[in-house]
UniProtKB/TrEMBL annotation:
It comes from the Bacteria. Residues 21-42 are annotated as: Disordered. Residues 509-579 form the DUF1585 domain. Residues 231-367 form the DUF1592 domain. InterPro entries: DUF1585, DUF1588, DUF1592. Residues 384-480 form the DUF1588 domain. This is Cellulose-binding domain protein. Pfam families: PSCyt3, PSD2, PSD4.
Length: 585
């Protein structure tokens, strides 16, 4: 029994078992009111500062996939799905981006932030581009769909013009800017003296898909020899589309770039509002929210489906294969619903709608299945306090909760407060309890003395304890049922959710549950500032330098803290002056 009760804690303790080298200066606090409310923002703008800028941003794997799918659909919309399916196994070889935590954090980071270039990436995109070229030219019908009737008629004197026209239109969209005469000739010459021969056209396609202008965001600006130069209308279009949709500009945005409408303030704002208000926003918003809140750390829920203890614990709520995905999507749908519905950052934190589109999660929440249209059902329990009590932030894939993991996520991801790194001599092997215990009691006994106590007692454990009235599947409970390894119920113990989470360092208030915790987090505005910090990292593909990046950080933060709609918070990045220019020195 003891090993089964404490076993799930081992991994959590190995990751966040104690607190050494904690940085009190990065506790996420501003000046406080008597109730722990932060009255001012964390960031200040120095107009003379010169922010760092990535010289040549590489497309993330997600952005590259969207770009290649766009390229295929633009070339052959009727066969696009079939073509992409045929090269799926080839694209799998492109390596995943590596997420690197910010200095002082143990986990986190954004795939956009991986700007490393690996030989495996070079090899993979070469193979992918070759495969796409072959598929797009595989039959006479596909050649005609690609180049037009001029490629399959009996005349040969129009073949070069036929290929030139294709490159001028298709390649420009893929490279996000019109090609000059020299570039157009360079790619057309690859086909040799048979401009519409399938093999030659396939080579042209592969070369375009391997071009730096395709794989990177290449920006030249519009003012030579200037330290800071305005971006061209096409460069602005690319920035906007990858920022909000993680894909190349669509037809409307491309047309706006062609007409220089993006160089007009009203025209520019119109496109920003359109992009942020479109369902395609989920392409980027889902990635941002999932990586900020570390939803990928939710363990698979069905691994222990044959384990006697887990089967007894789950009962009728045995997770299906899709259970994990349902829980993650619940959080992502909340973020999108709030953003598209005009809600604020606070509304996202406190959203009590259950976005359960499948029966399993609906059962966990005790609500009807949501159709996906119209308002989602509301949680039926007053204890279900919004984001912090969504199943994705509570579930473990085992029969016991993980207060340490929950507490660390709240402290570090939700509040942007650091707790330092575990000491090198930490013992991650949990002791065998002598008596029947709740998970909270086991954690408290394990972390109440020695090197562990410094951070666990005041910073890590308390936020996690406040959600202990939800079990390891996210179900509400008043008692914790404890099972032995054979699945026999050996006892039920009342759960204790009281704790002092110290949302602000000087806030010593004792709280009773996650509802009070959510209210304190909202009042502190630290969640809002944390969103600003992380959205900066997602947008800029790097960790912030506060003294250099304060202007953009403070603008995002100001919007977030003001109660403005989340759509405006996201838009604030694109509406900042720095978004429209590039520093070259």
């Amino acid at each position: 029994m003891g090993k089964h009760l404490l076993g799930p804690l081992a991994l959590a303790l190995a990751v966040v078992a104690a607190c050494s080298n904690s940085d009190p200066s990065n506790d996420g606090s501003g000046s406080e009111g008597g109730d722990g409310t932060s009255e001012k923002g964390l960031f200040t703008c120095d107009g003379a500062a010169k922010p760092d800028e990535l010289a040549l941003p590489r497309l993330s794997r997600a952005e590259l996939e969207n770009t290649l799918k766009f390229a295929v659909a633009l070339a052959n919309p009727n066969d696009a799905e079939e073509i992409w399916k045929s090269i799926g196994d080839t694209f799998v070889r492109y390596p995943e981006d590596l997420r690197t935590p910010a200095p002082g954090d143990l986990k986190g980071g954004y795939d956009r932030g991986d700007q490393a270039i690996q030989q495996t990436q070079v090899d993979a995109i070469y193979e992918i581009a070759i495969a796409i070229g072959k598929e797009l030219t595989a039959t006479p019908a596909r050649i005609e769909a690609l180049l037009g009737a001029c490629a399959t008629d009996s005349a040969t004197d129009n073949d070069r013009a036929c290929l030139d026209d294709f490159i001028a239109t298709w390649a420009a969209r893929i490279m996000r800017a019109p090609l000059d005469a020299g570039d157009l000739a360079f790619y057309a010459d690859i086909a040799g003296d048979k401009p519409v021969d399938p093999a030659g056209v396939a080579d042209v396609i592969a070369a375009i898909l391997n071009a730096p202008q395709t794989l990177y965001r290449v920006e030249h600006g519009t003012a030579d020899s200037e330290e800071t130069a305005p971006l061209s209308s096409f460069e602005l279009a690319a920035r906007l589309s990858y920022q909000f949709w993680q894909s190349p500009p669509d037809d409307e945005l491309w047309k706006a770039a062609e007409e220089n409408a993006l160089l007009d303030e009203a025209g520019y704002r119109t496109q920003v509002e359109r992009l942020v208000g479109d369902p395609e926003l989920r392409n980027a918003l889902d990635g941002f929210i999932a990586q900020w809140l570390r939803l990928d750390e939710l363990a698979p829920l069905d691994v222990l489906k044959n384990d006697p203890a887990f089967k007894a614990f789950a009962g009728d709520d045995m997770p299906p294969d899709s259970g994990r995905a349902q829980m993650i999507d619940d959080v992502l749908l909340s973020a999108f619903a709030i953003t598209s519905g005009g809600g604020s950052v606070s509304d996202f934190l406190k959203d009590k709608h259950a976005y359960a589109k499948d029966g399993y999660l609906a059962s966990i929440y005790g609500v009807p299945v949501w159709s996906g249209t119209g308002p989602a059902p509301l949680f039926t329990s007053e204890k279900r306090a919004g984001l912090l009590t969504r199943a994705a932030l509570l579930s473990t894939g085992t029969s016991t909760t993980r207060p340490i993991h929950k507490g660390y996520v709240i402290r570090n991801a939700v509040l942007c407060q650091q707790v330092g790194t575990p000491p090198p001599n930490v013992n991650s092997k949990p002791p065998t309890p002598q008596d029947l215990q709740t998970t909270r009691q086991a954690v408290a006994n394990l972390t109440s003395s020695g090197a562990c106590a410094g951070c666990h007692l005041t910073r890590i454990n308390p936020p996690g304890f406040l959600t202990e009235n939800f079990d390891a599947l996210g179900r509400e409970r008043t008692e914790e049922r404890v099972f032995d390894a054979e699945g026999k119920l050996i006892g039920s113990l009342p759960v204790d959710t009281t704790a002092a989470p110290a949302v602000q360092p000087s806030d010593a208030r004792q709280m009773s549950d996650a509802t009070e915790l959510s209210q304190a987090v909202d009042e502190s505005k630290l969640f809002h500032s944390c969103l600003a910090r992380h959205y900066f990292r997602f947008t800029q593909r790097r960790v912030e330098t506060p003294d250099k990046d304060g202007c953009l950080l403070s603008e995002i933060e100001r919007k977030a803290r003001s109660g403005a709609p989340m759509a405006e918070v996201l838009s604030s990045v694109a509406l900042a002056p720095a978004f429209k220019v590039r520093r070259f020195q």
